[in-house]
C-alpha cells in the first residue's frame, strides 16, 4: 500500500502493518511520519527498539537475525533500519525472504531518501506493497509552502497573519527544518503573546533560504525570473558549482523543446512525460510552461547560452564569468524581459 503523509494516521488507527517504508528527500517530513509509526507501535505494545544504521551499509544479517530471534517470553519490538540511499542493495533478498513470513512480534520501519525508480520493480518491493505500507514523501511545492507554514504555526499555538507568513516564507523558503526551528524559537520567545505581525517577524527571523538546482530550474522555466535569480545568488554564496545547476537547466530546456515538437505533432503532453519517465509534478509543470510560453527560437537561444556557460566554466572563453552567463540564461527564459545575446561560442 502506498500512502502520502496525511493518510498515514488513519491507516495506523486501523492496525499496524508488519513493515513500513518511509522515503523522501525532506528529512523533517520523513521524521514526522516515522514518529507517527513509532508512537502507534509503542501504544500497541511494541516496546523494545533496535536500530540499524546504514553507514556505510546496513548489516542485513543482523537485521534478519534480530527479527527472527524472538523467544516466547520476549517483548514485541520495533526494528528500525536507516537506509543510506534509495537502493536496497544486498538487502533485497533478505527482505524478500522476511516478507514471505513476517514475524507477528515485530514492526519493521525502513526509512531513507527517495526510493530509486528501479527498486519499485524489484520482488521485495512488490511484496511490501501487498503486506506493508510505503509512505512516500514529496517536497513541499513553493505554492504549498505558505499553507504548510500556517498549519505548522497553528499546531504550535502561534497566530501568524498573512503578512507575517509572507516574511517567513521569504526568509526560510525551501528549508523546512529552518522553518520549524524558527517557529519553535518564536513559540518560546512569545509565550505570552503568540500573535506576530510582519514587522516583528522581519526583525526576529534569520534568512535561512535553502534552494537546490531542481527548484531553480523549475522557477526559471516557469518564468519566475526574480525568484530564480534570488535562488541563483543563494546557491552561488553557498559555494554550489555552476555545472550541476547547468545540467538540470539544460536537460529541462531540451525537454521543453522536444515537448513543443510533440504537441505540434498532435501528441498530448501527458503522453510525452510518460514516454520520458518524467513523474515529478514540479518538473512536469515547469517544462510544459516553458514549452507553451516560449517559442522554439527562444528555447534554442537558451540552449546556446547553456553552451556558453559550459565553455566559460571549463575555461574555454573569458568573455563573461559563468555566473553572469547564468543570469543571462535565466533572463532569456522570460520573454517579458529584454533578452541579451550571449557571447560567441567559437
Structure explained in plain terms:
The protein has 346 residues and is an alpha/beta fold. It folds into three domains: 135 residues, Rossmann fold, CATH 3.40.50; 60 residues, Helicase, Ruva Protein, domain 3 (Orthogonal Bundle), CATH 1.10.8.60; 120 residues, Zinc Finger, Delta Prime, domain 3 (Up-down Bundle), CATH 1.20.272. Strands 1-6-2-5-4-3 form a six-stranded parallel beta sheet, with helices on both faces. A two-stranded parallel sheet has the order 7-8. Helix 4 runs parallel beside helix 5 and helix 15 packs antiparallel against helix 16. It starts with a strand and ends in a 14-residue tail after the last helix. 30% of the residues are buried.
Give structural attributes.
346 residues, alpha/beta, Rossmann fold, Helicase, Ruva Protein, domain 3, Zinc Finger, Delta Prime, domain 3, 3 domains, six-stranded parallel beta sheet, two-stranded parallel ribbon, 16 helices, disordered C terminus
Query: Order of strands across the biggest sheet?
Result: 1-6-2-5-4-3
Mean pLDDT score, rounded? 83
Shape: globular
Structural domain count: 3
Rg measurement, Å: 24 Å
Largest sheet: 6 strands, parallel
Indicate the percent of residues in helices. Answer: 40-55%
Secondary-structure class: alpha/beta
What is the H/E order? EHEHEHEHEHEHEHHEHHHHHHHH
- Terminal residue distance: 55 Å
How is the secondary structure organized here?
Elements: E1 2-3, H1 8-14, E2 19-23, H2 27-43, E3 48-53, H3 60-68, E4 77-82, H4 92-100, E5 106-112, H5 123-131, E6 133-136, H6 145-155, E7 159-160, H7 162-172, H8 176-189, E8 195-196, H9 198-204, H10 213-221, H11 225-237, H12 242-264, H13 269-275, H14 281-293, H15 296-313, H16 322-332
Parallel strand pairs: 1-6, 2-5, 2-6, 3-4, 4-5, 7-8
Helix pairs in contact: 1-2, 4-5, 6-7, 7-9, 10-11, 10-12, 10-14, 11-16, 12-14, 12-15, 15-16
Amino acid at each position: 500500500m502506498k500512502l502520502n503523509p496525511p493518510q498515514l494516521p488513519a491507516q495506523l488507527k486501523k492496525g499496524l502493518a508488519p513493515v513500513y517504508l518511509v522515503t523522501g528527500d525532506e528529512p523533517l517530513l520523513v521524521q514526522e511520519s516515522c514518529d507517527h509509526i513509532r508512537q502507534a507501535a509503542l501504544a500497541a505494545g511494541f516496546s523494545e527498539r533496535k536500530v540499524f544504521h546504514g553507514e556505510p551499509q546496513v548489516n542485513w544479517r543482523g537485521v534478519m537475525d534480530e527479527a527472527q530471534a524472538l523467544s516466547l517470553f520476549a517483548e514485541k519490538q520495533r526494528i528500525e533500519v536507516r537506509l543510506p540511499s534509495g537502493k536496497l542493495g544486498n538487502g533485497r533478498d533478505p527482505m524478500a525472504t522476511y516478507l514471505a513470513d513476517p514475524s507477528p512480534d515485530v514492526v519493521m520501519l525502513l526509512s531513507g531518501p527517495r526510493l530509486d525508480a528501479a527498486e519499485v520493480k524489484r520482488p521485495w518491493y512488490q511484496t511490501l506493497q501487498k503486506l506493508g505500507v510505503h509512505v512516500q514523501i514529496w517536497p513541499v511545492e513553493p505554492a504549498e509552502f505558505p499553507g504548510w507554514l500556517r498549519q505548522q504555526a497553528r499546531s504550535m499555538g502561534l497566530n501568524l497573519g498573512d503578512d507575517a507568513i509572507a516574511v517567513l516564507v521569504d526568509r526560510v523558503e525551501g528549508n523546512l527544518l529552518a522553518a520549524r526551528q524558527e517557529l519553535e524559537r518564536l513559540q518560546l520567545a512569545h509565550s505570552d503573546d503568540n500573535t506576530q505581525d510582519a514587522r516583528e517577524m522581519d526583525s526576529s527571523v534569520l534568512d535561512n533560504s535553502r534552494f537546490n538546482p531542481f527548484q531553480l530550474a523549475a522557477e526559471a522555466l516557469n518564468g519566475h525570473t526574480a525568484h530564480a535569480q534570488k535562488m541563483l545568488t543563494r546557491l552561488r554564496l553557498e559555494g554550489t558549482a555552476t555545472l550541476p545547476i547547468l545540467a538540470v537547466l539544460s536537460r529541462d530546456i531540451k525537454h521543453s523543446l522536444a515537448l513543443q515538437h510533440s504537441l505540434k505533432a498532435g501528441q498530448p503532453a501527458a503522453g510525452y512525460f510518460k514516454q520520458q519517465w518524467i513523474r515529478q509534478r514540479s518538473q512536469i509543470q515547469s517544462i510544459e510552461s516553458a514549452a507553451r510560453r516560449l517559442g522554439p527560437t527562444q528555447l534554442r537561444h537558451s540552449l546556446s547560452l547553456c553552451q556558453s556557460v559550459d565553455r566559460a566554466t571549463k575555461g574555454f572563453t573569458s568573455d563573461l564569468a559563468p555566473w553572469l552567463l547564468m543570469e543571462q540564461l535565466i533572463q532569456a527564459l522570460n520573454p517579458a524581459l529584454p533578452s541579451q545575446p550571449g557571447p560567441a561560442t567559437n
